Write the structure tokens for this entry.
Amino acid sequence: MKINVLSAEIYNKIAAGEVVDRPYSVVKELVENAIDAGATEITVEIENGGKKRICVTDNGCGMEKDDLERAFLPHATSKLQTAEDLFTVQTLGFRGEAIASIAAVSRMNITSKTESGEANSLSVTGGIFGKTVSAAGANGTGVTVEDLFYNTPARLKFLKSDAQEESDVSNMIARFILSHPEISFTYSAGGKVKYRSFGDGLKSALSVVYGAQTLSQCHEISAEKHGIRLSGFIGNQNFSKPNRSYQSLFVNGRYVVNQTVGAAVTNAYGAYLMKRQYPFYVLFLEIPPEIVDVNVHPNKADVRFADNQIIYGSVYSVISAVLDGNSRALEYLAGIPKPDETIRVQNPVSSPLPSQSIPKTEEKASMTYEEAKKELQFDVSPVGGRKSEPDFLEQPPVRMEVRSSAAASEDIFAENQRYLLEREEKIHKTQDRIDPAELDYKGELFRTYLIYETGDCAYFIDQHAAHERIIYNRLREKWEKREIVSQPMLMPFILNVNAQEYAFLEKNFNVLRDMGFDVEEFGNNSVKVSAVPVDLQKIDLDAFFREVLSSMESLRAVRLVDILKDRLATSACKAAVKGGEMLTVQEVRALIDETDGDMGMKCPHGRPVAVKMKKSEIEKLFKRIV
């Protein structure tokens, strides 16, 4: 076997696949460089979702002429000098791979000027260098990336639609606005300004990204435990979102998605969240750089903590204290005075506590990270055994959500599952269908279960489940055969969403219109609904769209039919006879006739309508046969 040494052209393209696989990742790398350069103003412009053009301009420190060419070389960086520096990384970028990787798969130009120097410009096309030339420009750096992946068509074809790529870039910019509220950002897509922040603090940044009304529904927290600082905003007990796209975690200023912190927050909200609802949070975790590894993956999207248990316990205890409203919440809420001998709380907006007197309590001095870590060690005393869990780990067992990394695999599994269920249903329809005239009614149990006998079998039928299924089938048939008529609304319904959710809805506008909804863009990631299907005039649009947006979690198409099935099932359940109601003989006969003798049917929620018992099974219970 012959070993080949790859050329720079090849290994740069390979590196590009890990570092810059999509337009949003190009934007991420360039904006991180601008932040590390000390910029206070950053402008981002994209065209065609970033496929055609990306331009990032900053007013940072800039580069000298000699450094401009070095910036394009692989593993060239101003942020590391020795291997030991990797363990105390405090900048957003440090690998020195991004510029070389981007330049290898695009037409790239950098123009830069230091405060005391002249502006210079250098272009690189597909990794081939041009000449450095003098240019005109203000202090700072401007980077333009055009025709991304023009020379790697295999990668180009895997890019998503312009709208989806744009939404992912928008999502990334929103995270930068939140993580660096001291920087002024201007972001434009297709010539339209999408975000403009002013660098005047986190509250202003939160309002730019999520709207000013969000602040009134959040608690602002600021806490320090065991050498770990946690700050930011969390939604109150009644404020949740239909998907996780409203969750932002920044570790030492870097946006990451981390399971340990995610599980801690989710479990803290456990008692307050309804099914398929998720916490809202913008959290900043500041920890000593030596106990966090940011060098986990080239895209730096996750971090690894030296001790997950300490991180989990610290985050959980702070957030659960604030949500539960216990006395320790006063220590963690920003802007709330610390308790003296006795203080009076007058229901501040940011506090969940009612007006009450809170006596001063003796608190254990806060442990350092190292002291907290020692608390988790095994006690090797003569008695032996493990020490009891320290008090800062105030949490139930971790309930991690395990999710597949490939949506396509989930869809294949779901498709197979549907096929097997349909096949099983067909088998049941042939095996479990009986002529209703052959069923001999024997009475009822508990005013809920009807008893029938035929041949050597007995059937126990749940009267509510049977009636519910009959009504559901009737409603569904009527819905499917209905003529679609829209009813204009007196006041249009305005739905404000984030960039990801808007792209998701826009992709499915035609589906919604086919159902009878009049939907259209309303500017700045908002959707206007002007009409609804005439037979859904009383629909709760806010709840309906929350349910639609919850489909984003699996990244599949909106299954509106399934959502409407749930609504029909609810209507059927309310209209059906209930368990405990006494039916007349005529009503019992009418009910069994309407089932058409289908003993394999299920109610709309999946519960069986009938349970079959053979004579032999009953005789075994009485030991008549063995």
User: Anything to note?
Assistant: Confidence is low (pLDDT under 50) at residues 75-83, 85-91, 340-364, 378-410.
